[in-house]
Amino acid sequence: MNMKRIIPLTMIALLVIVMSSCAPEDKTMKAVISTSFGDMTVELYDETPQHRDNFVKLVEDGFYDGLLFHRIIPNFMVQGGDPKSKDAAQGARLGSGGPGYTIPAEIQDTLLHVRGALSAARQPDSVNPMRASSGSQFYVVTGTPHTPQTMQGAMARTGRQYTEDQLQQYYDKGGYPYLDGDYTVFGRVIGGLDVLDKIQAVETDKLDRPLEDVKMTITMK
């Protein structure tokens, strides 16, 4: 047996082990939103720790299991998380429920309402000037495609300016920029955007509630 050959191979094996043990661990918190249309995997942003930790707690408590996506508006968003939606009668007005508390706004200029953004629902500014978020209701952005022309229109409408990188995010992904700076974005869909498209395509009533319930179960990944 050639000892000269064995020693370099051993050193290479040890080097691979050391490099693997030193590789940075992805500690980003992730959750899986399961529906009859399939699963969406979302990651939660560290930049919004209060929203992240609250969402994780509710998920681990089973709060969302059996709740509905009760409000669906094509080319805008799908919304859920109202505890009153569990076993709600067909046609019942939903959207006012929550866990009994709100979360202080954590609005970040760098976190945008691009397609797949996970954001916190809230009451309007007229009754909620601090823009505190619902304790449980969230929405996932579907939005529309965007071009330089449509983004110019969005900026004229909102008065908001974007960096070139932010504009490129909208060109690449689409979304709904009209909510930027007004609602807390606390995560994004990283798997299952096709499921999001299927959910937003369901038939709804005049209150934007699906005619057939779209139930969710959420687990941490």
Please tag this protein with its features.
alpha+beta, 20% strand, Cyclophilin, two-stranded antiparallel ribbon, 221 residues, 10 strands, 5 helices
Which SSEs are present, and which pair or pack?
Blueprint: H1 3-22, E1 30-35, E2 38-44, H2 49-60, E3 69-73, E4 77-80, E5 102-103, E6 117-120, E7 133-134, E8 138-141, H3 148-158, H4 164-173, E9 185-191, H5 193-200, E10 217-220
Could you explain the architecture of this structure?
It is a single chain. A hairpin with a 2-residue loop joins β1 and β2. The strands form two sheets. The protein has an eight-stranded antiparallel sheet with strand order 3-4-8-6-9-2-1-10. The protein has a two-stranded antiparallel sheet with strand order 5-7. The protein starts with a helix and ends with a strand. The model has no long low-confidence stretch (mean pLDDT 92). It is globular, with a radius of gyration of 21 Å. With 221 residues, the chain is α+β, with helices and mostly antiparallel strands.
Question: What is the terminal separation in angstroms?
Answer: 48 Å
- Give the CATH architecture: Beta Barrel
> Can you tell me the CATH topology?
Cyclophilin
Tell me the name of the CATH homologous superfamily: Cyclophilin-like
| Rounded average pLDDT | 92
Helix vs. strand class = alpha+beta
Largest sheet: 8 strands, antiparallel
Radius of gyration: 21 Å
- Approximately what portion of the residues adopt beta-strand conformation? 15-25%
Report the total helices.
5
In CATH, what is the class? Mainly Beta
**H/E element sequence:** HEEHEEEEEEHHEHE
Q: How many beta-strand elements?
A: 10
- Low-pLDDT sequence parts: none
Neighbour order of strands in the largest sheet: 3-4-8-6-9-2-1-10
Percent helix = 25-40%
Count of individual domains: 1
